[in-house]
Amino acid sequence: MAQRCELFQMKCLLQRVTRASVTVDDAVVGQIQGGLLALVGVEPDDTAQTVLRMAERLRKYRVFSDNQGRMNLNVEQAGGAILLVSQFTLAADTTSGNRPGFSTAAPPEQASRLCEDLADQLALGGIQVETGRFGAHMSVSLVNDGPVTFLLTV
């Protein structure tokens, strides 16, 4: 049996932002003033355990500057929020060809549930969480602070 490629797992593309918002049909459905924009790609093998690990990583990931200008603070320590947006294209297989394949993305029902669970886990940890709208055509607006961008996997 072939081993699963490590590329095919839950991913969060994190951007440290001074502000970010998500609009659906000309209405703002989620917005934050400072914190992290987390674009989430869910894979078929992702589970509740994957969500717990990703929530812990998002809570603790130190990408905010301390008094010495070093990235030593996490989102909570920095007083920030998280705008969580499902983005199935992050789960695309881009390993060959000139067009992405999406067989590596979780089915919509699974992805929706795990994205909701991730938002819930972050909120349980005391972080303000805003979200986009799963499955909708969304316009995401942000001001990347730094710019600081990381691809976080579990």
Description:
- The chain is α/β, with parallel strands linked by helices.
- The protein has one domain: 3-Layer(bba) Sandwich (D-tyrosyl-trna(Tyr) Deacylase, Chain: A), CATH 3.50.80.10.
- The chain is 19% helix and 36% strand.
- The chain has 2 helices and 8 strands; from the N terminus they run βββαβββαββ.
- It has helices at 48-60, 108-124, and strands spanning 11-24, 27-32, 35-41, 64-65, 71-73, 81-86, 129-131, 139-153.
- The strands form 2 sheets. Strands 1, 2, 3, 6, 7 and 8 form a 6-stranded mixed sheet that branches.
- α1 packs across α2 (108-124).
What's the arrangement of secondary structure elements?
Blueprint (H helix, E strand, L loop, with lengths): L10 E14 L2 E6 L2 E7 L6 H13 L3 E2 L5 E3 L7 E6 L21 H17 L4 E3 L7 E15 L1
Parallel strand pairs: 3-6, 6-7
Antiparallel strand pairs: 1-2, 1-3, 1-8, 4-5
Helix pairs in contact: 1-2
